[in-house]
Amino acid sequence: MLGFYRPLFRLVPDNTKIQFMKGRIAGLVVSAILSTASVILAFHPGLEQGIDFKGGITMEARTPGPADLGRLRSAVSGLNVGDVGLQQFGDADTVLIRLPVQGEEAATQQAVSRVRGALEAAAPGTRILRTEAVGNRVSDELFTGGLIALAISLGAMLIYIWVRFEWQFAIGAIATLILDTTKVVGFLAVTRIEFNLTTIAAILTIIGFSANDKVVVYDRMRENLRKFKTMPLRELIDRSINETLNRTLGTSMTLFLSALPLALFGGDTLAGFAWTMLFGIVVSASSSIFIAAPILLFLGENRLRRGTEAPKVPAPRAPAVAKGQGVTQGAAGPRR
């Protein structure tokens, strides 16, 4: 009967004994290089900010047939509304038009009307599906609010982990979360996915998932610290990671498979969110093993064992005295 309740499928065997800490130096070095490169890319060439953060006008139009981008671009290039960008958006008959900020609301409405008229003249029957306009002031407020949300999220995680665990665990978790976040930002800079409110939501979701995964692994390490009082910390960390490996991989794969259809079939509106999530899931799962655990090993190797009782050594027993044997002689000679 007990065999009936055993999982039918396990990603790794129960008795797995992978020595992850052998690659601790390589994991930290690679992570530091990737995070440093990500920070550099975030400033140069910089992130591809969406309309939420840089302002402007976005129009989505649908033509009667496959869109002739060259003809449409020529039709709107002479409207004196600034640098107009056109690109195919999803289907062959859908076009995304981007216009710079026009100033006041009246100027924005006038620019939208002129672009609509030019598109209809170039391709009769063209319909405007949606129009979004964000001014400079609103975009600055949204950008500041998004960064504040990220900072508050990291701060809340720091307080939670610091209260729940020893300081070595807290430093390891927060350092890993920061490194994970920088890698996601570098991914956005390389792929040129728009950095907007949607990707901010994806980053916040990744931070929450990554923190949860590290709490699970750290919990097992703390339990094993109490259970195996004489086991070396390096061996204990490897044991804890192997014991939680099925849970880590299972949760990560479930979330990955949930986000994959959005990336493939969710359209351009959800693609940025989905691809950011997919990359963040992979980074978060690997960082729990190759970044958070090595940091804990370096910080706690001589500290987390402090205060544990040393194993008691049994006192030597006195030799047994045979029955009927006389007592030992004293200083005054044998007793008569």
From TrEMBL:
Gene3D superfamilies: Multidrug efflux transporter AcrB transmembrane domain (1.20.1640.10). Pfam families: SecD_SecF_C. The keyword 4Fe-4S does not apply. Keywords: Cell membrane, Membrane, Protein transport, Translocation, Transmembrane, Transmembrane helix, Transport. GO terms for molecular function: protein-transporting ATPase activity. It is found in: Cell membrane. GO terms for cellular component: plasma membrane. Residues 119-301 form the Protein export membrane protein SecD/SecF C-terminal domain. Signal peptide: none annotated. Part of the Sec protein translocase complex. Interacts with the SecYEG preprotein conducting channel. SecDF uses the proton motive force (PMF) to complete protein translocation after the ATP-dependent function of SecA. Belongs to the SecD/SecF family. SecF subfamily. NCBIfam families: 2A0604s01, transloc_SecF. This is Protein-export membrane protein SecF. It comes from Roseomonas indoligenes. The gene is secF.
